[in-house]
């Protein structure tokens, strides 16, 4: 598979603020790539540099092997889908989709039959058949999102950039559009680079997930690797599914304010430590009197509260040093537990299930 985009040492500052601090990145053709990062990490700035809306202070951008730093945005052959859709309110669904083809600077399409065929094919692809003549104010949010996507795809871009494309949709629709976006992309074979602040969206959608941290790529890997082997405590923190503990390695234990955790045969990860991380769903809650097995780590904590989220329940426990530990139980595995407020429990996990950044 050939690479579609190559970034080398891209830097961008606004005054004293460094938004991008030297980005090296290669994005393959025919792939779904998610770009995940907390607010302010530089996601939008990076997309805008790639699209050509923003000039970087340094570094180079290559598209299909050719440098495009000097090429204006509208000639790059890169599509952009915005969170707010940015549709023309006075045009119909078909009118919005045709607009870019009819009005492009070079090679504007004037042949009505060709235009109708191209627009019709893309309307079919994104699932808008029958809505061609509706005004865009008379369709649903999900349908407007499809129009925004179709309007970009009809220009046959080499690469499509999507900035929080599902952010304006309600939760049900967002889940459905995830699957649809992936299917549409697969049918076309064009690379999507999808910016999101949602870890679940990034992991669910990306063949490759890029994690941005303060203007740098903290990790680029498949979703499984990111989830199970985050490259640093910062990446683990963004994923919102790891309890992180401060401390230091002391012989065969990790020692910090939360206690002394015996180190098992689990991996020692090189990046950004020292820190100790246990995933929410790796922790079991036991009566305080139950002793741990030799291969387990145990801390005592008082139950604070639970939160149901559909298929799972997340319970929060306070350690003696005040740190809150989150435990996630999937209801398909066991019925919801009934913990007593303020009561003490043993929180237990297998030594080799923890991650050690050292
Ligand atoms: N035009 C600008 N002028 C000054 N500072 C800017 C400008 N655009 C972005 N920044 C700053 O650059 C940093 C990166 O911003 P960016 O919008 O790329 O982050 P982001 O990861 O997309 O955030 P969010 O998820 O909140 O949209 C932020 O600190 C932001 O305040």
From TrEMBL:
Molecular function via GO: ATP binding
Signal peptide interval: none
Keywords: ATP-binding, Nucleotide-binding, Transport
Protein name: Spermidine/putrescine transport system ATP-binding protein
PROSITE patterns per UniProt: ABC_TRANSPORTER_1, ABC_TRANSPORTER_2
Annotated ABC transporter domain residues: 5-239
InterPro entries (UniProt xref): AAA+_ATPase, ABC_SmlMolc_Importer, ABC_transporter-like_ATP-bd, ABC_transporter-like_CS, P-loop_NTPase, Transp-assoc_OB_typ2
Family to which this protein belongs: Belongs to the ABC transporter superfamily.
């Amino acid at each position: 598979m050939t690479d579609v985009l190559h970034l080398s040492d891209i830097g961008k500052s606004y005054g004293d603020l460094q938004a991008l601090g030297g980005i090296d990145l290669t994005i393959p053709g025919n792939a779904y790539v998610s770009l995940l990062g907390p607010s302010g990490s530089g996601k939008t700035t990076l997309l805008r540099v790639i699209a050509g809306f923003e000039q970087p202070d340094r570094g180079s951008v290559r598209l299909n092997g050719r440098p495009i730093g000097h090429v204006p945005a509208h000639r790059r052959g890169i599509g952009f889908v915005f969170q707010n859709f940015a549709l023309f309110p006075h045009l119909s669904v078909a009118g919005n989709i045709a607009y870019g083809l009819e009005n492009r600077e070079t090679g504007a399409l004037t042949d009505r039959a060709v235009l109708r065929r191209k627009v019709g094919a893309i309307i079919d692809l994104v699932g808008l058949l029958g809505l061609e003549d509706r005004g865009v104010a008379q369709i649903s949010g999900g349908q407007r999102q499809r129009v925004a996507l179709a309007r970009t795809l009809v220009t046959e871009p080499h690469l499509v950039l999507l900035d929080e494309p599902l952010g304006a949709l309600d939760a049900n629709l967002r889940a459905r559009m995830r699957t649809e976006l992936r299917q549409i992309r697969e049918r076309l074979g064009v690379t999507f680079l999808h910016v999101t602040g949602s870890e679940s969206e990034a992991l669910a959608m990306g063949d490759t997930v890029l994690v941005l941290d303060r203007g740098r790529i903290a990790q680029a890997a498949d979703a499984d690797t990111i989830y199970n082997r985050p490259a640093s405590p910062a990446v683990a923190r963004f994923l919102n599914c790891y309890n992180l503990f401060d401390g230091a390695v002391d012989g065969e234990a990790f020692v910090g304010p939360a206690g002394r955790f015996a180190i098992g045969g689990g991996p020692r990860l090189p990046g950004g430590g020292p820190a100790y991380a246990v995933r929410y769903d790796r922790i079991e809650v036991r009566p305080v009197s139950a002793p741990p097995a030799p291969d387990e780590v145990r801390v005592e904590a008082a139950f604070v509260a639970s939160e149901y989220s559909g298929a799972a329940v997340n319970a929060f426990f306070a350690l003696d040093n005040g740190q809150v530990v989150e435990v996630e139980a999937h209801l398909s595995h066991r019925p919801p537990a009934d913990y007593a407020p303020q009561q003490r429990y043993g929180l237990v996990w297998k030594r080799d299930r923890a991650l050690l950044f050292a």
